[in-house]
Design goal:
- The chain is built from 16 helices and 14 strands.
- By secondary structure, the chain is of the alpha/beta class.
- The protein has two domains: 4-211 and 475-498, no CATH class; 215-467, Carbon-nitrogen hydrolase (Nitrilase/N-carbamoyl-D-aminoacid amidohydrolase, 4-Layer Sandwich), CATH 3.60.110.
- The chain has a six-stranded mixed beta sheet. It has a six-stranded mixed beta sheet with strand order 7-8-9-10-11-12, with helices on one face. A two-stranded antiparallel sheet has the order 1-14.
- It is globular.
Length: 500
C-alpha cells in the first residue's frame, strides 16, 4: 500500500523532471539539471525496482512531455491531424522515451540493494548515462535529445566535451548530483572524499576550457547563409514553387562576393531532377564564375530503385552530393513497419518515404577544403560517427525547424549543434529556414546569429581548422566502458563479500 511519503516522492520525481528542462535552452539554468537529478536519485534510494521504475517514468514524462511538446506542433499544425489524434500521438511519443528513465530507475533498484552500501552513489550516475546512451544511439537509430551533457555547455564541465564527449560531461554532472546526495546522507570520510573528487573534476573541467585542441590552417573564409523563412504549410504547394525559388535566387545573387553560400534544408521544394537543368545549372555557372561554392539542400529521387533521399548538393568550383544518413524516426521514416504504417493514413503526410544514405560517403568540399555536412537531426549525433572527420576543416549543418513553429525546439536544436563544434574543435556553419541560423566557434560559443522567423542573410567569416581533439580519436567508448566497469564492480564486490 502506498504511504503518504511514497506519494510525495512520486510527486517529487515528476517535479524534478520539470525542473530538469529548465537547464536546457532557452532557459539556460544549467545547474538545475544537477539539482533535478539529485532529487530523482533521492527518490530511488528507498524504492524497490518497481517503485523506482515508476518514479523514473514520472521524471521522464515531465522531461519529455514539457521538453519535446513541440512534436504536437508538427503533427497537428503541419501534419493535419486533429487535436485528439495529435495529442494521443504526442503522448505516446513522450511516453515511449520516458521508459528509458524508468529503465534506469528499475536497474538502480535492482542492482543497488542495501548490501551495496556506498556503491549506490556510483551506481546511479553510471546507470543514468548508460540508459541515455541506449536511448541516444541505439533505439530507432537513436533519439539524442535532452541529454544531460547538453545542459552543461555553459559550465566548467564543457571543458570535457572535446576530450571525452557529451556523455562523459553528462556523467560528471550526474556524478555531482549523486555526490551531493551522499553529502546530505552521510557525514563521514566517504562524504569528504566525494566532495574532494567532485571539486577536482570541476576544477579540471575549468582548466581544460583554456586548451585549444585545433588550430587555423588557412586564411579566413567568407560565408553567407540564407534564411528563407518560408512558411511550412505553403512550401510544398506547387503554385508557390517559382516564388520560393526566386526568393533564394535573388538573395544568393546579392552575395556572390562570399566564398561560400549556404541554403537551409530542402530549400528547393522540388526534386533535383525537376530543377537541375533550368534552375540549378544557371546558378552553378554563376557560382563558378564568381569563385563561389553554393551549398544547396534538395530532395533527390532514384527512379529505378524508387528511393528518395534528403540531400545536400555543392555547386560552383566543385560539385558533389551528400545523402542524409541519420533519418528522423516517425518523421522521415517509420520504424516497426508494418505495425506503424497506420500513421501514414492517420496523418495523411508523406512519412516514412526517405532512404538513408551510405554511411561511408566522401566528404564534400567548399572554398578548397573538405567539410562534414549534416542535415537537420543529424547534428544531434557525435562527430565521431561522421567518417573521415579529422580531415574536415569545418562543419556545415542545414536545418528546417519550421516544422515546430515558435516552440522550444529551435533553441534546443541550436544548443545541440553547439556541441558538435566544441567536440570537434571546428567552426560550425548552420543555415536554417526560420532559425536559428548561426556561426559557432570551435569553443562552442555562438559568434553571430540571425533573428528567428525573418527572411535574411547572415554574413560572417571563419577559419578552416586542423588538428584533432581527443574525442575525435576515442569517441564515447571511454565513458561507456568506465560506467560498465563500475557497474560490474557493484555486482561483483558485494557478491564476493557475501561468499566469505
Amino acid at each position: 500500500m502506498k504511504t503518504q511519503n511514497d506519494l510525495l516522492l512520486d510527486a517529487a520525481s515528476f517535479l524534478a523532471g520539470l525542473f530538469f528542462i529548465l537547464a536546457f535552452a532557452p532557459f539556460g539554468q544549467s545547474y538545475l539539471a544537477i539539482a533535478a537529478l539529485a532529487v530523482l536519485f533521492y527518490t530511488w534510494q528507498s524504492a524497490g525496482p518497481q517503485r523506482a521504475a515508476i518514479r523514473g517514468c514520472l521524471f521522464g514524462l515531465a522531461q519529455f512531455g514539457f521538453g519535446v511538446s513541440w512534436v504536437y506542433v508538427s503533427i497537428h499544425d503541419f501534419g493535419g491531424a486533429n487535436i485528439l489524434v495529435a495529442s494521443l500521438l504526442t503522448l505516446l511519443f513522450c511516453g515511449f522515451w520516458a521508459l528509458f528513465s524508468g529503465l534506469a530507475g528499475y536497474l538502480v533498484g535492482k542492482l543497488s540493494p542495501r548490501r551495496t552500501g556506498g556503491w549506490v552513489y556510483l551506481t546511479m550516475p553510471c546507470i543514468w548515462i548508460l540508459c541515455e546512451y541506449l536511448r541516444g544511439e541505439w533505439i530507432f537509430d537513436g533519439f539524442p535529445w535532452l541529454l544531460t551533457g547538453y545542459s552543461q555547455l555553459d559550465t566548467p564541465l564543457a571543458g570535457y566535451v572535446p576530450v571525452l564527449g557529451s556523455y562523459s560531461t553528462g556523467f560528471i554532472a550526474a556524478l555531482t548530483a549523486a555526490m551531493t546526495l551522499l553529502l546530505v546522507d552521510r557525514r563521514d570520510a566517504l562524504s569528504v572524499l566525494a566532495v574532494f573528487v567532485v571539486a577536482c573534476l570541476w576544477l579540471t573541467g575549468w582548466t581544460l576550457q583554456g586548451i585549444s585542441w585545433s588550430r587555423p590552417i588557412g586564411k579566413t573564409i567568407s560565408v553567407a547563409m540564407i534564411q528563407g523563412n518560408i512558411d511550412q504549410d505553403k512550401k510544398w504547394q506547387p503554385e508557390n514553387r517559382d516564388r520560393i525559388l526566386e526568393t533564394y535566387r535573388q538573395l544568393t545573387e546579392q552575395h556572390w562576393q562570399a566564398q561560400i553560400i549556404i541554403w537551409p534544408e530542402t530549400a528547393v521544394p522540388a526534386f533535383y531532377d525537376e530543377v537541375s537543368k533550368n534552375f540549378l545549372q544557371p546558378l552553378a555557372d554563376k557560382a563558378k564564375k564568381n569563385h563561389t561554392d553554393l551549398i544547396i539542400s534538395v530532395p533527390v529521387r532514384d527512379h529505378d530503385k524508387k528511393e528518395y533521399y534528403n540531400a545536400v548538393l555543392t555547386l560552383g568550383t566543385t560539385q558533389g552530393f551528400y545523402k542524409k544518413v541519420h533519418l528522423l524516426p516517425f518523421g522521415e521514416y517509420l520504424p516497426l513497419q508494418p505495425l506503424s504504417g497506420f500513421l501514414l493514413q492517420t496523418l495523411d503526410i508523406p512519412l516514412g518515404s526517405f532512404t538513408a544514405g551510405n554511411r561511408k560517403q566522401p566528404m564534400l568540399k567548399a572554398a578548397g577544403y573538405p567539410f562534414i555536412a549534416s542535415i537537420c537531426y543529424e547534428d544531434a549525433f557525435g562527430i565521431y560517427g561522421a567518417g573521415n572527420f579529422t580531415d574536415a576543416a569545418f562543419l556545415i549543418n542545414v536545418t528546417n525547424d519550421a516544422w515546430f513553429g515558435d516552440s522550444l525546439e529551435p533553441h534546443q536544436h541550436m544548443q545541440i549543434a553547439r556541441m558538435r563544434a566544441l567536440e570537434s574543435g571546428r567552426y560550425l556553419l548552420r543555415a536554417t529556414n526560420s532559425g536559428v541560423t548561426a556561426v559557432v566557434a570551435p569553443n562552442g560559443r555562438i559568434i553571430s546569429r540571425a533573428p528567428l522567423f525573418t527572411t535574411t542573410v547572415l554574413t560572417s567569416s571563419f577559419h578552416p581548422m586542423g588538428g584533432a581533439t581527443p574525442f575525435m580519436v576515442s569517441g564515447d567508448w571511454s565513458i561507456i566502458l568506465l560506467c560498465s566497469l563500475c557497474l560490474s564492480m557493484v555486482i561483483v564486490i558485494p557478491a564476493a563479500k557475501n561468499q566469505r
